[in-house]
Specification:
It is built from seven helices and five strands. The protein has about 210 residues and is an alpha+beta fold. Among the domains are: about 60 residues, Zinc/RING finger domain, C3HC4 (zinc finger) (Herpes Virus-1, 2-Layer Sandwich); about 80 residues, Ubiquitin-like (UB roll) (Roll). The chain has a five-stranded mixed beta sheet, covered by helices on one side. The radius of gyration is 22 Å and the shape is globular.
């Protein structure tokens, strides 16, 4: 697997169907559907370039505000917290450094325990299309758009008491999904003009010779 700048890669794949580095064919007709987000590399870039992540988040907020849409994430809570902080200063309620540090520590702990609830969410319906597996009792779920197909495989395997999540295939529109595809990517590339929830099917893994 190779890591490439996403915007550069998308522009390149508009006219090509091969990897820009090794020239291996990604897909004959739909190469854009077979690229994934390298989060490890993204984290490294953010650490190497000071202020890049903050700048991108600022641009994202400006983009959504310009369209009159709510920014994905817990923006309301952030705005409310900022407003309370300003109000306390206006009313002359100056807090000591000790109390301020304590509140900051508590807020950070709450953020760490967020479990991606503040992420953009995706509604999913998981249907079984094989007589060899049973259906889920609760097939309707809602989770982070950053979750991957691999996360869904592990979830289904745990619910069905399977020995390994590698025994499963997950499909959308009768097409097997790659384990590294995020749900956001699946929605944009395969469910863009359809109504929620995103309908996915699971079945025992088939070995294609």
């Amino acid at each position: 697997l190779l890591s490439v700048c996403r915007s550069c890669l998308v522009k390149y794949l508009e006219e090509n169907n091969t990897c820009p580095t090794c020239r291996i064919v990604i897909h004959q007709s739909h190469p854009l559907q077979y690229i994934g987000h390298d989060r490890t590399m993204q984290d490294i870039v953010y650490k190497l370039v000071p202020g890049l992540q903050e700048a991108e988040m600022k641009k994202q907020r400006e983009f959504y505000h310009k369209l009159g849409m709510e920014v994905p994430g817990d923006v309301k809570g952030e705005t409310c917290s900022t407003k309370q902080h300003l109000d306390s200063h206006r009313n002359g309620e100056m807090k000591t450094d000790e109390n301020s540090n304590k509140e900051t520590s508590e807020e950070k702990q709450e953020e760490d325990n967020d479990y991606h609830r503040s992420d953009e969410q995706v509604s999913i319906c998981l249907e079984c299309n094989s007589s060899k597996l049973r259906g889920l009792k609760r097939k309707w779920i809602r989770c982070s758009a950053q979750a991957t197909v691999l996360h869904l495989k592990k979830f289904i395997a745990k619910k069905l008491n399977l020995s390994s999540f590698n025994e499963l295939d997950i499909l959308c529109n009768e097409e097997i999904l790659g384990k590294d595809h995020t749900l956001k990517f699946v929605v944009v590339t395969r469910w863009r003009f359809k109504k929620a929830p995103l309908l996915l099917h699971y079945r025992p893994k088939m070995d294609l010779l």
